[in-house]
Amino acid sequence: MTLLDAGFIDGTVVNGAMLRRAFAAAGVVGGLADPTALKVSPLTVPSSAVAVAPGSASVLSPFATACTEVYTITNDQTEVVQVPGNNTNGSLTRELFIRVHDPAFAGELSHPPTFEVASNRPVGKPHLWLATITLPAGTSTILSDHITPRAKVLSPRRDRNVSLFLPAGTANMPSSWASWPAWSNPVAVPEWAHKLRAVATISGVEYVRPGSGQTTSNGYVIIHFAGSNAQGLYTGRIRASEHQTLSITVVGEFDVPGSIRGTTQPLNLQGMKVSGDGTYKVTEFTTITMDYEFTEE
Question: What is the C-alpha separation between 221 and 201, in angstroms, rounded?
Fold first, then answer.
């Protein structure tokens, strides 16, 4: 085996394959240059078309003999792409992607990248999957709810931190949703953040069984951020019937709206006991950790 000439030595002759290998060697494995690049949206006046925003992206080669090469794509202005309407009696799904035409591998004529809409993506051909468009029966007008983004940011920025809280005293779990324990935990929201994911662990929650009455008690804990509860089924459930000390782990995910980026917002916990006569409480021996990460997506 012979090594090929090193790239970018004399600055004069650099072929396409060399450039694609250089991008791959630098860790470019496919994705959007930033979260707004090539974003697919309905038109200002919705119709049977979508708008694809300007931006750049990279596409990993699918060819076995060039699997370590990366293509680059740039759209320099908003592109309007027509999407056929749905004339059927059921929902219809179509894929929107950008095709890269490479005569060296795909047996095609040399051609600039093209926006394409089809029922399926071109397996084995280089392309950037932008969105899935799902139209209800008899629909041709495309709304934002019909568009599912598919492309990911190539190198999203991340900011991960851990907060620690030690309660100063005892606090019983409330019987309706409320901060539990009382903990403001202000966190700085990066100006570029689009998502927040958090994992909270409460170690040393004490359950006190009543002397009489119902012996099993149920409660819930959820992560709370900027006035909102975690999205989806992220509630931590606890149940106990005997006097014991518990540990609770709760996870949460949040969208970060533009209105709170660059601000400071509370990230804490809320709890609620829903049944039973026992008491869940934190004490000065309880430890609460909040592991959280903002990401650019």
Answer: 11
